[in-house]
Amino acid sequence: MAGPATLRHSSSLHALTLDKTRSIRTALLDWYAKEARQLPWRLPPVAFGAAPYEQYIDRLYRCLLSETMLQQTQVKTVLPFYEKWLKKFPTIVDLSNAPEEEVMAAWAGLGYYSRAKRLHQAAKHLVKEHIDGEVKVPTEPEYWIKNVPGVGPYTAGAIISISFDVSAPIVDGNVQRVLSRLLAIHGDTSTPKSQGSRLIWERATELAKCEHPGEFNQSLMELGATVCTPVAPNCTRCPLNKQCEAFKQLLSLKRERKDVFAKARNGKSAIQPSVSVEIENFCTVCPGSIDASVLPEKPEAYIQSLYPFKPAKKAQREENAIVLVIMRKHEVYLEKKEKGLLAGLYDFPTQLLSTDEDLESLLDERKRLLRATLSGTTMHLFTHIRRTSHVLKSDEKHAISALDDLKRKNITGKWVAIDQVPDIGVSELCLKNLRLATGSEGSSKRKAFSKPIKGSVKDVKKRKMLSDRTSEFF
Ligand code: SF4
Ligand SMILES: [Zn+2]
Q1: Which of 104, 205, 213, 358 satisfies CB 3.0 to 4.6 Å to 161 for a cystine?
Q2: Would you call 177 helix, strand, or coil by DSSP?
Q3: Torsion angle of C-alpha atoms 52, 57, 60, 64, degrees rounded to 10
Q4: Does an H or E element contain 413, and which?
Q5: Whose CA is nearest to atom 3 of ligand 1?
Q6: How far is the CA of 157 from the centre of ligand 1 (A)?
Q7: Furthest-apart CA atoms within the chain: distance in Å
Q8: CA 78, CA 63: separation in Å to the nearest integer?
């Protein structure tokens, strides 16, 4: 098939024939046996029912633990936590019997503390129902998704296929990327219900119907993590390059039509479909035409530009905030956020500005009122928000008057030793502001916080500061 086949193509491009399925499984499992990283949570397949029941409980505990820890966290960060956790809570029963404070303390430093809470609740549920209770642990994804706290379709698929060796798909970001490339699926994957996502789930389900589904799923994830990476897929060393449709398209593009993408981007020529397809066989999942702006200048970047489909990015909202760092000897004052973006975490008292508020005069007023000095400005990116924080510091001498002002506004919080701030459940933004105000990074081994932005309020204002939020306090 010639190069830019993603325009109009037959739906058979995304099909898994018997031969193709077989060759994908064989090539991938061979590669996995030889090349996969040795990670402590990897489990060799044990057919469901072939071993004592307790063994599957132990496997599911390890799987649930590693999958929970790996959510939004890199493998190298998780490794020491995983080992330490199993020393502290060797079995799911130990975890379920532990007091919540102990569980949260063991999680300290991993971030996203709600994961620890849900893991604890899941352990309690599983012990009550399927260890102390009479019903053996079910192997249907629906049961897990509906009844076990913190378990969604992905974790359910992981537990069922990896712990029990029972067929179930796993589609994480790695698998989504590999399958979209392997089967040249350019359909929308922006939500789980989008057409592209659904097709990928279907294909993952078909592929996992094999002798050792857990082993196969892990090999697919490993390939995505180490070879078929987001920006630089290593196709020449990939065990699936013979089966991969995106790679075939790239080779054909290199062979025949090197300049076609550059021309199309300049509007000089249209990309023509290279296959003639009966209208009733057209794929209805991928868009009928490609947005020329996603096409790369050079064919080398073809695969990563088109697969997987990337939805247009939402515009980022600008947000301005005044942050108050109140200090007392080696302590700072933090409040627990009850709502908003950082709900459940501790943070410095923060005032979000509305669009019509004049930042400069507001800052002057706060400085006067709280007898504070401006430490500087930090910039922090949330998914759709770019927040600029203007950090005011009130030293020990003036902390009391600053606190009095807070009390009048019904804000409550607590004093925390600076070196313990990273360990009590705070955001990276809080740590960034802490560093700016105190010059300290605390005792945490968390990555260095990004650098604060230098410059006066006027400089920052020039960067078109907008916010649609109203003031929360002061
Ligand atoms: S050949 Fe390239 S694009 Fe295809 S699966 Fe392998 S690494 Fe990914
Ligand atoms: Zn298609």
Answers
A1: 213
A2: helix
A3: -170
A4: strand 413-417
A5: 181
A6: 23
A7: 80
A8: 13
Using the structure block, give the residue that is written with the tokens 């910039």: 379
| Residue to mutate, 176, 178, 219, 305, ligand 1, most ligand atoms under 8 Å from C-beta | 178
What pLDDT, on a 0 to 100 scale, did the predictor assign at position 266? Answer: 60
Helix ranges (H only) for 208-340 are: 213-226, 245-256, 260-265, 302-306
pLDDT recorded at residue 291: 62
Ligand 1 atom nearest the C-alpha of 239 is 6
Write down the CATH number for the domain with range 317-466.
3.90.79.10
- Alpha-carbon Rg of the chain, whole angstroms? 27
pLDDT of residue 72: 84
The residue with tokens 């401006």 is 374
Low-confidence ranges of the chain (pLDDT < 50): 1-6, 269-275, 442-474
Nearest atom in ligand 1 to the alpha carbon of residue 227 is 7
pTM of the full structure:
0.69
> Comparing C-alpha atoms, which of 298, 335, 435, 311 is closest to residue 380?
435
Give the per-residue pLDDT at 256. 67
Look at ligand 1, atom 8, and give the residue with the nearest C-alpha: 228
pLDDT attached to residue 245? 93
Could you state, in order of their start, the residue ranges of all structural domains in the chain? Answer: 317-466
**What does the alpha-carbon distance between residue 273 and residue 9 come to, in Å, rounded to a whole number?**
7
Active site (annotated) includes residue 338: no
Ligand 1: nearest atom to the Cα of 235: 2
Q: What is the pLDDT of residues 39-60, one digit of tens each?
A: 999 989 999 989 999 999 999 9
Q: Which of 341, 346, 322 is nearest to 421 (CA)?
A: 346
- Specify the residue with its C-alpha closest to ligand 1, atom 2: 235
- Give tens-digit pLDDT for 421-445: 887 778 888 899 999 998 765 444 4
Q: How far apart are the first and last CA of the chain?
A: 65
